[in-house]
Design brief:
The complex is a heterodimer of chains A (570) and B (445). Chain A contains nine helices and 25 strands. Chain A has 570 residues and is an alpha+beta fold. In chain B, the strands form seven sheets. A five-stranded antiparallel beta sheet of chain B has the order 15-16-17-18-30. In chain B, strands 2-29-28-27 form a four-stranded antiparallel beta sheet, with no helix packed on it. A four-stranded antiparallel beta sheet of chain B has the order 3-4-5-6, with no helix packed on it. The chains are: A alpha+beta (570), B alpha+beta (445). Chains A and B meet through helix 4, strand 1, helix 5 and helix 7 of A and strand 1, helix 1 and helix 2 of B. Chain B: This is DDB1- and CUL4-associated factor 13.
């Protein structure tokens, strides 16, 4: 039987504070050297006592290693002994969990296993932190001059200042005929899907401006969303939910979902989450969420999805429009009450609240933590909303029509804006993650790579029952108390399996089962049980007596201790 | 103003020619890989299911013996050679890679009781029911030559077991007493007796090469040191042991296969209590052999199954059975840790994989990495209920399935009775005996 140990998970630090780097690279190393020396000294002192203990082995090995390097010091000695140091913030980025509490000394196997796995985990984290050095690209930035404010810099200036290809990423598509546009970027960031309110749906490769398909669905379009690849997308039309191919061919018409307002695709679960028109009573946020693959209703949907997503839901009675963006632990909401609030999702406590001149109708969060808010026809981008208090926007841009949709492009420094006059692609330096992972979302993947990735992703699809508020729940030890488990079992079985069954005496033949004999047998068993109960209570009483006596004895011992100050006591 | 926007050069990310491999830049940032625990769990679940799908352990059956296979011997130097002795005195030498018999010789009249290959690999010894010890050459006889042993020793009593020293030209036999022989002499250089008139097997310790152990018919296991003149000590158990096997990596551990359906791992220094009791068989255990890594061992039982146990596991991790395989008499774990050889009553020797779902042959580096990754994932998530349920699931023949249930009911009944006796007696008069101590009667020095 393995004994369970309580395990705590540490928070994922999303935005780590920037440390003060040492002025010269060797200053950090000197600290490291000093630390190493201290360790050696400690080993030297301990080694005499610790010779009998087993931990000595590892310390001795370390000491031997450190002794060896200065021992061949007649030749050259390494000026930077030991492995290369890793900066603390980088190590923090890869840190997963605090160390476990060590189990009882007698549980040899468990201690062994835990120690080994923790060592392996630490090594893996260090290796990942070291690999960080080899990443090819660096993030973008925008810094104004002494008196210049970054939010005053216009898009044209930025487009002129950067190279041609990056400058071409700022463009406008004038589509004034078919109503304000909603948009979506695919997961790799290469393909853009536009949906106009009057029915115009187009998907393009926005970098090369190649049109993949363009259709008019002859109905009003509420929302558009890419599915897992650039081969399929979902359009929430006025009546039902449609799924189209990237050539514009209608694949599915899902009549179960009518009146869909907003959608979000969960890439790792292969689920499409939709929000339909609220049908609940006034005053309540009643949101029914329909999963594409499993039509069952989940009431408090916010608790179940933890991936950057924007969810819009309406409160029917107040006609307030709330906009919600959730990413990992923080939830940012904005409403008609002209306030931008940041919440902690796990505790549902408001962290910060900002004032906006007008309520933000659209919100979007980028990979690097930039928040874009749109009010009317102005889009403002804020930097680092969740961790630091923010006073003024990082960037701003004014558009022709009212903004209807906002979306950051995944691995580019680009913000896509859908508005009444069409589509605008805006340059936001520092928004995108510069280094993508080739095995996950690779903008430069070939068809073969995409096929392989698709198959592997489908095989690793996470089942919807694993959706929970804490994503590391599976990694923790289930410490359900015995009582709770017993209760569950009773519920499931319908009866209590451990309850003592009433004693039914066996029916004996040849007249041995007369009433008196049966009563006698029953009494025998009842007396036995009573004896058990009495014995147990006597034992408990004896134990308590013993403990009381121990305590009194200890108190007496303490009080009889002679001290020099006794003569001053009365 | 200072501005920098992410600008990637496609030449750095797309391969130059069709003949190159694709470029795959990696970023291990955890924020780019959310839900890592759930995804790993799903991968572990898939890996466990695939392991059950690919679990096809049976490789080949070596046919040819005309009577049940009684004993087997591994060649000391060659992985693809196996020797087997049958109940009609025939000894066959097999080539395992071609699955065919290379040489047959009539060694004894009656059972071939024991066989062992000399450490140099050039000759092998056999003992049989005709009270002889014979030494044979490993090479086949040339054209026109007859099969003749190099050396024959005639004894007075039947010899039932044989084992050779790891490095020296010394071997030991057991029958009515345990004899140590020098290869050059025709009478034993030393004989050990301890009041028992029949020993069933004798084994040399592969690490501490001067130590021997033997199983006696008075339900005991006797330990000897070749350099001493009397046996060291013996442990008497509740039921007789058929045979034992020393752990090739740990000098002092040996596992004995007992008649009471269990196997016991003892530490040679503390024989009062076995280190582990391995329970899972439903009939007498006839043979046991350790893997060369010393981490696992395989046991053959009268109940027509083979079970693989971890060295410190109370229950088996794997069970092999076939409708055609009857009582398994002898078993060997091949020296490359990959195969298990079982010789059974119905004259067949079967070749099995030690890891049922393993892919044999040379694996490409990526295949190997993927296999290692899956293995590690399965280990990491092995305690989760769904994964444990799938990993543990084995099909058993109906007789064994019912017999296991019956034994469990019997054990539970015995335990209940003991509990009741303790409840109704004077406290302290019925001591609690742990499962391990229950099976040992006494240790005699």
């Amino acid at each position: 039987i393995t004994k369970y140990v309580i395990v705590t998970s540490s928070n994922l630090p999303l935005f780590a504070p920037i440390l003060q780097l040492p002025a010269r690279y060797w200053q950090e190393l000197q600290e490291e050297e000093r630390k190493d020396e201290n360790k050696v000294k400690k080993d030297g002192e301990q080694s005499k006592e610790a010779l009998q203990q087993e931990e000595d082995k590892t310390q001795k090995a370390k000491k031997r290693k450190q002794d060896q390097s200065p021992s061949d010091g007649e030749k050259k000695s390494d000026p930077f002994p030991g492995p290369a140091p890793i900066p603390e913030d980088r190590l923090q980025k890869f840190k997963r969990k605090d160390k476990l509490k060590k189990p009882h000394r007698k549980q040899h196997k468990l201690r062994d296993i835990i120690a080994r796995s923790e060592d392996a985990s630490e090594m893996a984290q260090k290796q990942a932190a070291r690999f960080d050095l080899l990443l090819p690209e660096e993030a973008g930035f925008l810094e104004g001059d002494e008196d210049e404010d970054t939010c005053m810099i216009s898009q044209e200036d930025i487009a002129e200042a950067v190279d041609i290809t990056s400058g071409a990423k700022y463009f406008n598509l004038k589509l004034s005929q078919f109503g304000p546009y909603r948009l979506d970027y695919s997961k790799t960031g290469r393909h853009l899907l536009l949906g106009g309110r009057r029915g115009h749906v187009a998907c393009i490769d926005w970098a090369s401006k190649q049109l993949m398909c363009e259709i008019n669905v002859m109905e009003s379009v509420n929302d558009v969303k890419w599915l897992h690849t650039e081969a399929m997308y979902a359009v929430a039309q006025k009546k039902w939910l449609y799924i189209y191919d990237s050539n514009g061919i209608e694949l599915h018409c899902i009549r179960k979902f009518n009146d869909v307002l907003r959608m979000q695709f969960l890439p790792y679960h292969f689920l499409l989450a939709t929000i339909c028109h609220a049908l609940g009573s006034a005053g309540k946020i009643s949101v029914d969420e329909h999963f594409l693959n499993q039509p069952h209703h989940i009431q408090s949907h916010i608790n179940h999805i933890r991936w950057p997503l924007s969810i819009y839901f309406t409160l029917s009675y107040k006609n307030l429009v709330f906009v919600v963006v959730v990413v990992f632990v923080y939830m940012v909401t904005s409403g008609m009450d002209k306030k931008l609030k940041v919440y902690d999702v796990r505790t549902f406590k408001p962290l910060k609240s900002y004032f906006l001149p007008a309520g933000a109708a659209c919100l979007s969060l980028s990979q690097k933590g930039l928040l874009s808010a749109a009010t009317g026809d102005v889009v403002q981008v804020y930097k680092d909303v969740c961790s630091m208090p923010v006073t003024k926007p990082y960037m701003a841009h004014r558009l022709r029509g009212t903004v209807w949709g906002l979306h950051f492009c995944p691995f580019e420094d680009v913000l896509g804006i859908g508005h009444g006059d069409g589509f605008t692609s805006m340059l936001v330096p520092g928004a995108g993650e510069p280094n993508f992972d080739g095995l996950d979302a690779n903008p430069y993947r070939s068809a073969k790579q995409r096929q392989e990735w698709e198959v592997k992703a489908l095989m690793e699809k996470i089942q919807p029952d694993l959706i929970s508020l804490d994503p590391t729940e599976l990694a923790q030890v289930d410490q359900a108390t015995w009582e709770q488990r017993h209760q569950d079992r009773v519920e499931v079985l319908g009866f209590d399996p451990l309850a003592k069954e009433k004693f039914v005496p066996k029916y004996k033949k040849k007249g041995r089962s007369s009433a008196g004999a049966i009563e006698r047998r029953k009494k025998q068993v009842a007396h036995e049980e009573q004896r058990d109960v009495i014995r147990k209570s006597v034992e408990d009483k004896m134990k308590m007596e013993k403990e009381r006596k121990e305590r009194e004895r200890k108190k007496a011992a303490l009080s009889t201790q002679k001290s020099a100050l006794d003569r001053f006591k009365k | 103003m200072k501005v920098k926007v992410i600008a990637r050069n496609p030449d750095d990310y797309v391969r130059e020619t069709k003949l190159d491999i694709q470029r795959v830049p990696r970023n291990y940032d955890p924020s780019l890989h959310p839900f890592e625990v759930s995804r790993e769990y799903t991968r572990a679940l898939n890996a466990t299911k695939l392991e059950r799908v690919f679990a096809k352990p049976f490789v080949a059956s070596l046919d040819g013996h005309r009577d049940g296979v009684n004993c087997m011997a591994k060649h000391a130097k060659s992985l693809s050679t196996l020797l087997s002795g049958s109940c009609d005195g025939e000894v066959k030498v097999w080539n395992l890679s071609k699955h065919e018999c290379v040489r047959t010789l009539q060694a004894h009249e009656g059972f071939v009781r024991g066989m062992v290959v000399r450490y140099c690999g050039t000759s092998f010894f056999t003992v049989g029911d005709d009270k002889t010890i014979k030494q044979w050459k490993m090479e086949s006889p040339g054209y026109g030559e007859e099969e003749e042993p190099i050396n024959t020793i005639l004894g007075k009593t039947v010899y039932t077991g044989l084992d050779h020293h790891q490095n020296d030209p010394v071997f030991a036999t057991c029958g009515q007493q345990v004899d140590i022989w020098d290869e050059q002499r025709s009478s034993p250089i030393r004989s050990f007796t301890w009041g028992v008139d029949s020993f069933s097997s004798v084994h040399f310790n592969p690490v501490e090469t001067e130590l021997l152990a033997s199983c006696a018919s008075d339900r005991s296991i006797v330990l000897y040191d070749m350099r001493e003149s009397t046996p060291l000590k013996k442990v008497i158990m509740a039921m007789r042991s058929n045979t034992l096997s020393w752990n090739p990596m740990e000098a002092y551990y040996f596992t004995c296969a007992n008649e009471d359906y269990n196997l016991y791992t003892y530490d040679m220094r503390y024989l009062a209590k076995p280190i582990m009791v391995h329970m899972d068989h439903v009939s007498a255990v006839l043979d046991v052999d350790y893997a060369p890594t010393g981490k696992e061992f395989v046991s053959a039982s009268f109940d027509k199954t083979i079970r693989i146990f971890a060295k410190d596991g109370g229950h088996s991790r794997e069970v092999y059975h076939t409708k055609r395989m009857q009582h398994v008499i002898c078993i060997k774990w091949s020296a490359d840790n990959k195969y298990i050889l079982s010789g059974s009553d119905e004259m067949n020797i079967r070749l099995w994989k030690a890891n049922a779902a393993e892919k044999l042959g040379v694996l490409a580096p990526r295949e190997r990495e993927a296999a290692n990754y899956s293995q590690k994932l399965k280990e990491k998530f092995q305690h989760h209920p769904q994964i444990r349920r799938i990993a543990r699931h084995r099909h058993l023949p109906k007789t064994i399935y019912h017999q296991t249930k019956e034994l469990r009911v019997m054990k539970e009944a015995r335990r209940r009775k003991e509990r009741n006796v303790r409840k109704h007696s004077k406290p302290g008069s019925v001591p609690v005996v742990s499962e391990k101590e229950k099976h040992v009667v006494t240790v005699v020095k």
